Amino acid sequence: MTTTLVTGIAELVTHDPTHGPGLGTVENAAIVVDDDAVLWTGPATSAPAADRRIDVAGRAVIPGFVDSHTHLVFAGDRAREFEARMTGERYDGGGIATTIAATRAADDARLMANGRRLLAELRAQGTTTVEIKSGYGLTVADEARLLRIARELTPETTFLGGHVVPPEFAADRAAYVELATGPMLDACAPHARWADVFCEPRSLAAFDGDESRTILEAAAHAGLELRVHAGQLGPGPGVALAVELGAASVDHCTFLTDDDVDALAAAARDSGPVATLLPGVEFSTRSPYPDARRLLDAGVTVALATDCNPGTCYSTSMPWCIALAVHEMGMTPAEALGAATLGGAQALRRPDVGHLRVGARPDLCVVDAPSYRHLAYRAGVPIARHWRSGQTSHEAPCPTCTRQ
Ligand SMILES: N=CN[C@@H](CCC(=O)O)C(=O)O
Ligand SMILES: [Zn+2]
Q1: Which ligand is nearest to the CA of 135?
Q2: Which of 26, 112, 166, 179 pairs as cysteine with 138 (C-beta 3.0–4.6 A)?
Q3: Residue 404: pLDDT above 60?
Q4: Which superfamily does CATH assign the domain made up of 65-348 to?
């Protein structure tokens, strides 16, 4: 297998503790990879030989981003709903029905084309691992086809039959929960690794604590691992449920009680749920940002993700989320980068990604700047190039950053 030596790295972020605490950063660094793994990292002066060499001319190299929360398979958009919010309307989840109708009406080719378009956007901004949820079909056939399409884009697929009660079941919520825990789950489980539920207090939207428990327990029984949307619209039962049921991640966490933070902190000592924060949602819905500082100081593992969807955050950009986390949520540039790489990997229980230790997948990106700090400092700085596992030796060289 061809090996590649990347040199000219002003700053390499590895998350390898042998390179020091924090991000495990090496200055004036080099990295050797093949198609499957990181083989070596360290100072350029002691780099081993490789079959080919790429010089990134004084740029920073970081692990590829791990976006652990997206809804990429849908049709239509909700620009008018967004416009109304910008003039004062509150987000309450009601617009999800618009996307459900558009998605049900779209054929597979259209959904796949839209998913591929958004995935290409994510990749161009440095995301190398992505999770994709269903949740805009909410019939047995539609949820299964959304997951079949998502599976062609990523192995990290999530059954979100518990997104909202679809309009045709408005008068009989229990019947919908029965469907989502019965025939719909049976049709979807073969195409999904994860199950998720949008859990809020009964008075707000989505599924209450009892309904969410029923949906999550059935999914776990079917062999799916769990994640939960919680605390997006108000404090609710979702965090406690995620902790109790051993979910990998609890996402949004915009409104947390003291008990929620305590429960997450206590569970963190035993690999409890990661708190996945989605600052693009607060930006796009004009909501208060989650208290990242409080979670970090309590010892909770924090991830950052885009939540790319047509309603609450129509963005695929992890660098933008990092900039928001630093500017608006009090995270340091190092904490934000860690949350967008290692944090996302933990939220997906993926020990092979989100870092560049020897043996990791060779998923990395070249920032068009000398330091990772520029992701927040020079918000909007482009990702000059990225590699993903299996693509290191045949990707075309980037004209702006390589001298091969
Ligand atoms: N909270 C629920 N689901 C999405 C929004 C879905 C939509 O509005 O279309 C979210 O994560 O924000
Ligand atoms: Zn979401």
Answers
A1: 1
A2: 166
A3: no
A4: Metal-dependent hydrolases (3.20.20.140)
Q: Is the CB of 307 under 6 A from ligand 1?
A: yes
Nearest CA to ligand 1 atom 12: 312
Question: String of b and e for 346-355 (b: at least 16 CB within 10 Å)?
Answer: bbbebeebbb
In the three-class reduction of DSSP (H, G, I as helix; E, B as strand; rest coil), residue 57 is classed as strand
CA of 93 to the centre of ligand 1 (A): 7
Indicate the SS3 state at residue 148: helix
Mean pLDDT across the chain: 95
In sequence order, the 6+-apart residues with CB closer than 8 A to the CB of 124 are 383, 386
- Which pLDDT score, from 0 to 100, does residue 268 have? 96
Residue 312 alpha carbon to ligand 2 centre in Å: 8
- Does 306 sit in the ligand 1 pocket, CB within 6 Å? no
Q: Where along the chain do its domains lie?
A: 4-64+355-387, 65-348
Please work out whether the CB of residue 255 comes within 6 Å of at least one atom of ligand 1.
no
Residue 202: which pLDDT band, with cuts at 50, 70 and 90?
confident
Q: Is the ipTM of this complex over 0.95?
A: yes
Condensed to tens digits (0 to 9), the pLDDT of residues 164-182 reads: 999 999 999 999 999 999 9
**Superfamily, domain 4-64+355-387:** Urease, subunit C, domain 1 (2.30.40.10)
Q: Which pLDDT value is given to residue 391?
A: 66
Ligand 1 neighbour 281 (Cβ under 6 A): yes
CA gap 251, 130 in Å, rounded:
15
- Provide the 10 A C-beta neighbour count for residue 240: 18
- Contact criterion met (CB below 8 Å) for 355 and 341: yes
pLDDT in tens, 275-295: 999 999 999 999 999 999 999
Q: Has 252 been labeled as part of a binding site?
A: no
Q: Whose C-alpha lies nearest to ligand 1, atom 4?
A: 312
**Does 363 show up as a binding residue in the annotation?**
no
- Nearest ligand by distance to the CA of 162: 1
Nearest atom within ligand 1 for CA of residue 281: 12
